[in-house]
Amino acid sequence: MKFGYLDKLILKRYGAAVRPYYCHLCGKCEVTCPKGIAISTVNRCLMYAEAYKSAELARFTYNEIPSAISATQDASTSLIFQRRWSGLENYWPKETSESYFSLKRNISMSRTGLIFSVVISFVFLWGTSVPYAVLGADNSVENVLPAGECSQDWIMKDKATLFNRETLFDHINGEAELYFPYGFEVLASATYVNRRNPELWIVADVYKMGSVIDAFGIYSNYRKTNASWITLGAEGFVSSSQLMFYQDKYFVRIQATGTTSLEQDTFLVCGSAVSQKLPSNAGPPRELEILRIPEVVPKSERYIAKSLLGYAFFRRGFIADTILEGEQVQVFLVPEDSQDDARKAVDHYRSYLKAEGKNIHLSETADLISMAAVDPLYGGVFVEQSGRYIIGAVRMKEPSVAKQLVEKMRNRLGSR
Asked: What whole-number distance in Å separates Cα of residue 45 and Cα of residue 249?
């Protein structure tokens, strides 16, 4: 029986019934919090850790909370995060799979699981099932997944499934929110079953994003600086439980479920089969070259598609970790559409710092604007505007260190 209009109304009714009992991640309650706690972000961290069993995503998301805000968490909250993120590898049992797909097969009766179970059970009672196929979706993405076998003894279980912005939640639940700012268009997903052991699966996901920058951005959310790198696509890494890479405007994630460890060759063969069917004429984003200075920690570069540093006037940008003279500083790059747009962003930042009562040291020439100040969230900051680019460094203790880093990045603008 097909999913019809009446079924849609029924699901909406059940959605309304459970609406008061879970966080909508809207952030509206945060303005009333006397300590300024990032409530919606904290709840997302808990969801990633407890529902998805995704240590990496939980830690990454929590670390995005500005230190001045996270420091205000009360003692009980701090204890929770100390246990779950300071040593998260030891917090979860060893048998817990890195792949959150295990959770989808054996979903627990947590708050998220309860809501999921109620809705799905009701649909089954009506003799229907929610369709995952996306009508009118980009079938070319579906075609990049290997039909038949993706690796020796790994056979496609069912036809590949497509998800769009409306249905992505069906596949990765709340994690879908992470993908939307990066221009997510469509996802093709296929499950491959081991011929010798049907309890072992590989789930291959191919995400079509808005651009190569967006594909890198979503990929950079998952990689670690100490990963095992592979020559696949523009960049990729592999472990005993997963493989990820990006190529052109596509992000590929291949994960094991039913086990925490597979031979890496299994992932590599499957990943190579996908890569061969993707466009190969685009390398890494050109903007990354500006960040390629000796002090940048390799593979620490990330692209934030919305509100770099949490500031709306920095609409998007790149950020990376550096070490210079024993000091750890983060450098960032904001590419704007024009020089005027870059100037407006700097002016907004200066106005914000003034409103916070911070002293600002400003110097301006015909071609360059430089500004040094103390950011209320990130400590010492040094920013320059050169053409349509804004280059800066935050969390600095010594201004001269930040100036060296920013100058080296600015000198690379001409090498692009």
From this structure: 27
